[in-house]
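Narrative of accomplishments. A recurring question from our advisory board has been how the design workflow behaves on a single, concrete structure rather than in aggregate. To address it, we present the structure tokens for one chain from the evaluation set, followed by the sequence designed for it. No filtering or post-editing was applied between the two.
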């Protein structure tokens, strides 16, 4: 069953509605970057680290994940259901879940933590200024 789901997933890269293979991950990447920036500003640890090491925070992290990706997941589910209906004359819920997870949830989980690390390095937590502000004579440099 998993092999068939993978073969169907790969077959979806061509044909009707194949633009979703670019659209969904692109939207989720933007959301992961925004969430990573939010984590860096709040001084929170990377998402997956906090998820696996802090069981008390896990429900809040899951809610945060769902809040960030729910619209993209819904859009992806509708597009994949439409694709399945056009190509297979029916909808296969497990394949739909597999496709949406690979295109929306996995990229978010993989990018949110690294995005937080990058934003943490760019922003100086002690002064609230970015490295660009210091380099260009921005706020607080006296220029």
């Amino acid at each position: 069953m998993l092999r068939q789901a993978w073969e169907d997933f790969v077959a979806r890269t061509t044909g009707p509605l194949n633009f979703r293979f670019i659209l969904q991950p692109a939207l989720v990447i933007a959301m992961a970057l925004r969430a990573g920036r939010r984590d860096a500003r709040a001084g929170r640890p990377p998402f997956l680290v906090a998820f696996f090491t802090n069981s008390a925070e896990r429900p809040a992290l899951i809610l945060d994940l769902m809040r960030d990706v729910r619209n993209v997941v819904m859009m992806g589910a509708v597009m994949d259901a439409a694709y399945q209906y056009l190509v297979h004359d029916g909808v296969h819920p497990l394949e739909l879940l597999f496709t949406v997870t690979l295109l929306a949830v996995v990229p978010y989980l993989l990018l949110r933590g690294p995005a937080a690390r990058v934003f943490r390095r760019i922003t100086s937590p002690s002064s609230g200024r970015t490295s660009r502000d210091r380099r260009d004579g921005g706020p607080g440099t006296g220029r």
